[in-house]
Amino acid sequence: MSHPLATLVLLLVASSGALAQDQPDLSWFGRPAPPPQLSEEQDSPQRGLNPLESLATGILGGEQPLGRAFNGALHYGVMLDMVGEFSEADNVDRLNTLRLRSFEFHGAGELSGVGDAYVVADLADGGSGSEFVLREAAAWFSGLPGGLRLRAGKYYADIGAWNKVYVSDLPSLNIDGTRRAYFGGNLALTGLEIHGGRSRDGFGWSIGLAGDIESQDPDVPENGTSRISGPGSRTGIKNWAGTARLQMGHPELMFGLSTYFSPGEMHETVEGVLELETMISGIDLSSFRRLGGQRWRQWSMEAWLKQGDTYVEQLLPVPMVVELPDESAFGWWGQLAYGLNATWSLGALASSWEHFSSVTDARGHYLSSFADHAFGPSHRLRFSFSHVNPGPGIQKFYAVGVHWTLGFGAPRTTRYHRRPRSE
After folding, report:
1. Cβ distance 91 to 66 under 8 Å?
2. What element of type H or E holds 421?
3. Whose CA, among 110, 288, 324, 411, lies 20 to 30 Å from 338?
4. Residue 6 dihedral angles phi and psi, to the nearest 5°
């Protein structure tokens, strides 16, 4: 474990030392919690909350109560995400301009009493102009033996604590560098995912099997969907991909283990398509705690180990590909956020990773601090200051950023909605 990672772990453990003392009210566990005086059937789950507090409880929760507003209804909404990052760097497309990073349409509804369906579509600008991206289109099915839930379609995989969180909802302005390097951003699968356990009982698990996988990062050209450095699309029996996750604990301290495996991940190269065995394993810790009044503290950290086959491309003097079998790389990231009152929160993020497809022990890091002002549950303005070091031979730079998000209509929902009959 590197010294920066050890230091971060010690700081996080010290900051959460009061977890074992007073037992807080957990009635809000498992949903973006309304204030105690509000019924979940009378109000939006996010009403009265700072958006980052709602996000934290949602991540650490799981399935969500149905609520009258969702029951039997089709609801939809829009999310606007505008970003400006300014720096002395001159070789990054997204910098030194204001761009509408995301113009998102989302909708969800009940499937005749057997489950829910949802879709998230996006006109997103990663720095090279707006392009259509289907983020997710999936259905949740309930009523299975043992209280199991099945998700089918295209969805953000249940891997790690933060993969299911959209970039527009992150406390920081950008995705951390570790998940960007190893997964290419948010990992979207097309397949099946079965879930067991209940978050309110402090235990949950999932297993997924996919026939196609896509990396999504709205801060790179083409939204990262064509990046060959991340997991690529696959066809055929051999080129499947699987995921698994185990999660334990309660919002005061949540622990998770995740893994991703493909026996023949497909990568396009200058010499054709390579099929590479890939395995990524991770551990995560997260915590959310109310500090009294409208103050709260949230922290998370993840560590990932990527193993398998990789390659290096050489374009000059003659295009060629050098395969590198049995490689490994380790990366970690962590963040800490404090809610000062109902509208303001402050935080910082740090990430460091070894490059997987490299013949040297190259490392990169991404550091960011941010201040967030919430005008309402779906209206935020954020300011950030970041330092980016992608690795040897790539330009390093500082950047200041501003980020504005505005949602209207129904909020995005991609989680399973728990029905009274399945209690």
Report:
1. no
2. none
3. 411
4. -60, -40
Q: What are phi and psi of 151, to 5 degrees?
A: -115, 135
Could you give phi then psi for residue 310, rounded to 5 degrees? -150, -170
Q: Note if the bond before 317 is cis, omega within 30 degrees.
A: yes
The pTM (predicted TM-score) of the whole model is 0.81
- What does the pLDDT average to over 46-57? 52
Is the pLDDT at 157 greater than 50? The verdict is yes
Give yes or no for a contact between 343 and 50, defined as CB atoms under 8 angstroms apart: yes
- List the one residue out of 362, 365, 352 whose CA is nearest residue 396: 365
Q: In the chain, where are the structural domains located?
A: 41-422
Structure tokens at 264: 């023949």
User: Contact at 8 Å (CB) between 153 and 138?
Assistant: yes
- Say whether pLDDT at 44 is over 60: no
| The residue to which tokens 């801060």 are assigned | 219
**Domain 41-422, classified CATH 3.30.470.20, yes or no:** no
| CA–CA dist 187, 159 (Å, integer) | 8
CA angle 409, 415, 421 (to 5 degrees): 105
Tokens of 387: 């330092």
Please state, in angstroms and rounded to a whole number, the distance separating the CA atoms of residues 306 and 276: 13
